[in-house]
Design brief:
mainly alpha; 1 helix; 97% helix; 0% strand; rod-shaped
């Protein structure tokens, strides 16, 4: 094969190799860009999911607190009613006792 033809084939092969390398570099850059976009999407989705989970947990906690508050209020109301009932039941006994003490004092003074 004549020398100019060999040189031409070598140059052609070099151009093909350069094209292949350029295409590979371009493909690499596109894949990196796509990977970065996908990573950003995943991060954004994860942040959104975290916000939603936080809101759900906060709402559940609020509901539990409200339930506990209601339970404590009901328990306090029942305790108050029981105390009032016991006090009312003792009014006669206390009245009798105070009258008795008063009578003792009156008798002691006479």
């Amino acid at each position: 094969m004549p020398r100019p033809e060999v040189l031409e084939r070598l140059q052609s092969a070099e151009h093909e190799a350069d094209d292949i390398v350029a295409k590979a570099e371009n493909d690499r850059d596109e894949r990196i860009a796509e990977a970065r976009e996908r990573a950003e999407e995943i991060r954004t989705d994860a942040e959104q999911e975290a916000r939603e989970l936080k809101e759900r947990r906060l709402e559940e906690a609020r509901e539990q607190i409200d339930d506990e508050c209601e339970r404590v209020l009901e328990e306090g109301k029942a305790d108050r009613e029981a105390l009032v009932e016991r006090a009312e039941e003792r009014v006669d006994d206390v009245t009798d006792h105070v009258v008795s003490l008063f009578q003792e004092d009156v008798h002691a003074q006479t």
